[in-house]
Specification:
This protein is α+β, with helices and mostly antiparallel strands and 418 residues long. It contains 15 helices and 19 strands. The strands form 5 sheets. It has a 6-stranded mixed sheet with strand order 5-4-3-2-6-7. Strands 15-14-16-17-18 form a 5-stranded antiparallel sheet. The chain is globular and about 70 Å long.
Amino acid sequence: MGLLRWHGDESGIDQLRLLGRSPDDDLIDMGAVRAFRLGRVREQMTRYGVDACLLFDPVNIRYASGSRNMQVFSARNPARYLFVALDGPVILFEFAGCFHLSADLETIDEIRPATTASYVAAGDDIAEREQAWAREIASLIREHCGAGATVGIERVNAGAALALAAEEFTIVDAQQPVERARAIKSAEELKCVRSSLRATENAVGALRAALEPGITEQQLWSVLHQAVIAQGGDYVETRLLSAGARTNPWFQEASHNVIGANELVALDTDVVGCFGYYADFSRTFHVGPDKPTAQQRELYSQAHEQIHHNMGIIRPGVSFKEYSERAWDIPAKYEANRYYLSAHGVGMTGEYPYLYHRRDYADAGYDGVFEPNMTICVESYIGDEAGGEGVKLEEHCLVTDNGLDVLSQFPFEADLLA
């Protein structure tokens, strides 16, 4: 990974222009992407004994079918959903007036009007609406899967789930087969990932170039949003940009805070970018105009060491438990404010698996094995419990047959590693 020099005679933005967009942008076979993803869902449904899945999460709908429609709106409104039979059709229940949006998708066999079983849509008649929804879905399941089928559902309100269970099906969580499906990427999917990363790196480059004393965190964060959308990305999931003392502890959202001279500015991209694929890396910048302090460099070097140590552990066949046991030892003064994860899966959002720190593994961790073509984000947050600034770094990586490739290419800060 290269380094950016922002306090010399040359602007770092000139280096970022060399990254460009991915050469794969015009060469991605999206039909192959969709076919692979639907095949993965059905493969994992077979593995876990699920006869049909009913998906409400808009990211899961898009993964299984390629259909995108009001993705953020759909995350909080059960206004569209997807039925996937193991040995039968894929039926999209679509929002009113939107059938044309997915009419050409070869992964979808039929589009029907959705029954929105929510209080907003049904008012005090919600129980009747839920019963009607359950009867319609039950009829579909019996037709294509038989009586007593095992049905995976997710993100549906409790009344609707209970009404469907009363139809004498075995109801299970669809997240298990879908998350395991999403964990492995195809070669064509990886082209989508790289394209999304290149666009997001360009956006972070624009943000870095706009960084100067006197701008607010929100004004700076808006630069990322504009550049992401202009390049065909979808949206940014979080507001994780902070400056100065607000960098510690982490998770303080972008605000009206005015960024001061010589402060650290930390961000996590969390971008749902091109083709719906997540571009997830973190960087910490120094505002200038002076050189970073020894304390700022120490924080940065510790975070840099942590992610590179942990990336060196990951390879096919290594278990999640072994990874946790071998992971970088966080110095005591930084443990209280540590990031909640050491690493996590990534694809169209943050995904399975979660990799926990050694001290958290007994309470929160679970075992598994790294496999080729998993994409993994390796995280670090370093901030002293006693106060001061903090540093957030993260790399977006690919598990290969031989180890780990770093997919994110945005450079680190030379002055903070000096």
